[in-house]
Amino acid sequence: MKAIQLVKPQAEPELRDIDKPSPGPGQVLLKITAAGACHSDDFVMNLPAEGFVYPIPMTLGHEGAGVVAEVGSGVTSVSEGTSVVVYGPWGCGVCAFCSRGLENYCSNAAELKISPPGLGAPGAMAEYMIVDDPRHLVPIGDLDPIETVPLTDAGLTPYHAIKPSLPKLVGGSTAVVLGAGGLGHIAIQMLRHLSPARIIALDVTDEKLEFAKSVGAHEAVLSNADAVANVRAITGKEGATAVFDFVGYQPTIDIAMGVVGTMGDVTIVGIGDGVAAAKVGIWAQPYEVSVRAPYWGARSELIEVIDLARDGVLDVAVERFSLDDGVEAYRKLAANKLRGRAVVVPD
Ligand code: NAD
Ligand code: ZN
Q1: CATH 3.40.50.720 in the chain, residues?
Q2: Taking the model in full, what pTM does it have?
């Protein structure tokens, strides 16, 4: 079968022909209907060869949707033909975090060598993939897999990031979204639907700002040296109530810390260069600001996000590519040329 694989660090992924897998006991084989490309893939691909932690060759794709093609022995909770999306941050299923659905924070995953598909285990950028356990599948019914697959990360991650700030996002509050890309454009829609906050989006081109407004941002501001002043001109003295950084480089973290107001939240979701950080101290920011850096989201939250999609409140922007053009999808992602999410669809 065809697969988009990371073959060596700091190089483009490759379209390769590999063996079709078959499900072992307890596993599920999916025939892939859609796979999303995430900026985190780009981060992984650009890591230095020395100390590279991912097994190569590795099939990419941690956002997957498919139809159950075959179940391994002992699997009774899903059946062939069901259309599903894959919950990606696989855990042990047994520890205290996993028991709360927070498999993204599994205490045993590292020790048990459990990795998410596309980030260690073989991912969804292929004709078929193996899912380790049926609990990692969420049925999507008649939702379109192509528009739904980004919700497994570009939807779930902002949802998990936004939820803890919702009690603060009351009438008259302000939410700032840095980066209106795959994650950011869904974050804006979730904030619009889940809160009455005024939403200010920042990005680096007028095109992206127009896109942010088209998905629901009330205001759009260029992310440049004047950004803090320009955002504060909108928020007034109180500053922003909650800031979500979907970029994570030092300049955006500095903007986030510069616009947040007293008792506000700063949530750093973007990985940036992997080392940028916020400075926190008694006078480093307004009083009682909370800073968080979450990773992905809970299994229960993916079900909630799919329910939001069923309610028709999320309009996910996708650019569609064939598996043969999967490498091109990653090129466009790296060049910042996408509107929304790149989704690869096998023929
Ligand atoms: P993307 O490429 O689709 O979107 C990034 C957006 O940020 C683009 O619109 C780009 O124009 C904009 N941008 C770039 N530089 C900017 C700047 N200086 N100021 C404002 N905007 C800027 O990426 P994505 O797939 O949405 O991922 C966003 C980030 O989140 C990446 O760093 C990714 O690795 C990370 N991520 C983290 C998690 C997590 O669990 N913490 C999960 C998924 C993705
Ligand atoms: Zn991702």
Answers
A1: 157-292
A2: 0.98
